[in-house]
Amino acid sequence: MFQVSEERPFYGPRFLKSKRWSPPKGTKFNYRIRVSLEKINQALKSVKYPGFSRDIVSFGIVRDVAFEDGKASVSIAITTSDANIPPAIRDSVEEALNALPEVNEVDVSVVLSGGKKPSQTAGVAPTEGIPGVKHVIAVSSGKGGVGKSTFAVNLACAFQQILAQEGKKAGIMDCDIYGPSVPLMLGLSGRPYVEGESLIPMEGHNLSVMSMGFLVDEDTPVVWRGPMVMKTIQQFSQNVKWGDLELLVVDLPPGTGDAQLSLVQTIPLSGAVLVTTPQPAATQVAKRGARMLEKTNVKILGVAENMSYLEAPDGSRQNIFGEGGGTQTATDLNTEFLGQIPLDKSIREGGDAGTPIVLSKPESEAAKVFVSIANSLLAKVRA
Ligand SMILES: Nc1ncnc2c1ncn2[C@@H]1O[C@H](COP(=O)(O)OP(=O)(O)O)[C@@H](O)[C@H]1O
Ligand SMILES: [Mg+2]
């Protein structure tokens, strides 16, 4: 068996790319294998990672490729909390390789990092990492000031409204260690109770809430370095008694730094929502955020645009911050555009007063958009 591995590097796709390689002289047999492996590698490059425009080879998830007696064996290793992804990749790889005339048989093994076989994880809740929590949706943005926390808080309230009808509950975890604003937006202050090793989340508007804002003094400059950030995140996912939550919204720190990267790797996410503003230039920033999520195989559930327009008393809409950024980002990332949240004074006031607009003005356009986005996201994570 000629394997692409450390022990048998000779016939590996990576090795074949190197200019110094030439087939051993006079060995027709090896040459045939080389051609086939090259074709197999090409075919693998045509397989896209589900939900992304990138292929599985450039994603770096193809670990081993072998070809012998017409049988192609491919081993793939991925990190994902989405149980649909391993079988989807396996099917696409099988299809792509079966299309090659040289290939009579295909054997694809998909291993989730941590050594679990996909068949074992298929029935496991995607968020086994946070005890009691079923789905975790992260709210992410490429930069600060796009209204990410406002979006996260209102989205969480919209989820809570929907889930309350099913007798279920939502929560919000504020991981923005640099500027935790969730407590203020939900009218919460003080410190959470500690029970043994565990923190008890605070309750605001029927949401379970945990925030760095509860744990650090307002006027203490927060100079968290990498390891401390990681520790906090781990504590928030492992040592908080969330109770039974159908859905947890996570407000990620802005940007795409290492802290954020390690965060999305620590918390098993059902997916992420990207918040952007309407300026066409914002798409670049949003896409940087998306690349960070791609690196960790986090599924992008959709793009939402905030501060989209200001409605004049006569009903006309002014595009204060330009237009098209949200739809463009969604198109570029090959994901759904979830909706536009208008600029509304009540949104800012609601945030400052501790009662998000979803609750204070449920009849407003903004509140309706939040509820509609929450409904589509819920359908997506439950699908
Ligand atoms: N759609 C909106 N209309 C009016 N004000 C908004 C809107 N979205 C956010 N804001 C305000 O903008 C400011 C920044 O929002 P915030 O959610 O803290 O941003 P981020 O978390 O991205 O830094 C807050 O004062 C908030 O109330
Ligand atoms: Mg914020």
From TrEMBL:
GO terms for molecular function: 4 iron, 4 sulfur cluster binding; ATP binding; ATP hydrolysis activity; ATP-dependent FeS chaperone activity; metal ion binding. The keyword rRNA-binding does not apply. One of its GO terms (biological process) is iron-sulfur cluster assembly. Gene3D superfamilies: Fe-S cluster assembly (FSCA) (3.30.300.130), P-loop containing nucleotide triphosphate hydrolases (3.40.50.300). ATP binds at residues 142-149. Pfam families: FeS_assembly_P, ParA. InterPro entries: FSCA_dom_sf (IPR034904), MIP18-like (IPR002744), Mrp/NBP35_ATP-bd (IPR019591), NUBPL-like (IPR044304), P-loop_NTPase (IPR027417), YlxH/NBP35 (IPR033756). Residues 38-108 form the MIP18 family-like domain. Keywords: ATP-binding, Hydrolase, Iron, Iron-sulfur, Metal-binding, Nucleotide-binding. The keyword Nucleotide-binding applies. PANTHER family: IRON-SULFUR PROTEIN NUBPL. Binds and transfers iron-sulfur (Fe-S) clusters to target apoproteins. Can hydrolyze ATP. Belongs to the Mrp/NBP35 ATP-binding proteins family. Homodimer. This is Iron-sulfur cluster carrier protein. It comes from Pelagicoccus mobilis. The lineage of its organism: Bacteria, Pseudomonadati, Verrucomicrobiota, Opitutia, Puniceicoccales.
